[in-house]
Amino acid sequence: IFKNGNGFFIKKLNSQTTENTLTINNPPEALFGTVWFSVKNNTIKSLISTTHPVSEKIKAGNVSEFIIANLGKMAKITFHTGEVFEAKIEKIEKDLLIIMNRGKLMGIGLTNIKMVEFSETPLYEFHKEENKRVIKIEFEKPVKNAEVEMMYMQKNIGWMPTYKIDLINNEKARLVLSANIINDAQDLDKTNIHLVVGVPNF
Predict the structure, then answer these.
(1) Of 7, 101, 102, 158, which is least surrounded by CB within 10 A?
(2) How far is 6 from 155, CA to CA, in rounded Å?
(3) CA dihedral of residues 181, 184, 185, 188 (deg, nearest 10)
(4) What digits encode the pLDDT tens for the residues 116-172?
């Protein structure tokens, strides 16, 4: 960990695949693209950084997400004006709710909705698909139980020295140096940490 808010990480990736490729989902946001890989008793043939769709389960945190979790259901919609509609939830397009009311499709601004009630038990989670970055590594041989190391630079982690003077008696004192680590990068549980007095140079 450097004092300027950057860190150099070495992470072991235990591969269980019997193929000669390894996919790393959600790779770190490496500083300046500084990512290196090494593997024991094997050779890396190619490395590709790309994106692919990933489906994630999300808990509804607002009215819009609550409605998305219950698409296709009948609902009682109460507006801020006091008007009430009973309609089938069709879909949401940006800030517009599309409903089927008496055989007609209607668009309603989400900001106009005060409350939504469902006759059946509603869902509170939904799946959202997003394109996320992945790294694909191809090896010369299958990588079952192989130890692959990923090394990279990442920001939002640093350390600051603090000093404390303990008075032993009227003539002697003890100077104690300790370090405060500022970490907004990732979990450091069960991690060996080395503090560097200096900054990396590129």
Answers:
(1) 102
(2) 4
(3) 50
(4) 999 889 999 988 888 888 888 888 887 776 778 999 999 999 999 999 999 999 889
Q: How many C-beta atoms surround the C-beta of residue 39 within 10 A? A: 19
Is-above-0.85 flag for pTM?
Answer: no
Q: And the tokens for 82?
A: 């006091």
E strands in 29-146: 35-39, 44-59, 74-79, 84-93, 96-101, 104-109, 113-118, 125-139
Nearest 5°: the CA angle 7, 13, 17 is 160
Asked if 151 contacts 8 with a C-beta cutoff of 8 angstroms, the reply is yes
Strand 35-39 relative to strand 157-167: parallel, antiparallel, unpaired?
unpaired
Query: How many whole angstroms separate alpha carbon 168 and alpha carbon 174?
Result: 7
User: In the beta sheet, which residues pair with residue 155?
Assistant: 6
Q: Which pLDDT value is given to residue 140? A: 87
Q: What is the dihedral of CA 126, 129, 132, 134, to 10 degrees?
A: 100
Q: Which helix (H) or strand (E) holds 183?
A: strand 173-183
Answer for the pair 15, 130: CB distance below 8 angstroms, yes or no: no
Q: Which amino acid is at 57?
A: K
Closest by alpha carbon to 69, among 108, 112, 132, 118?
118
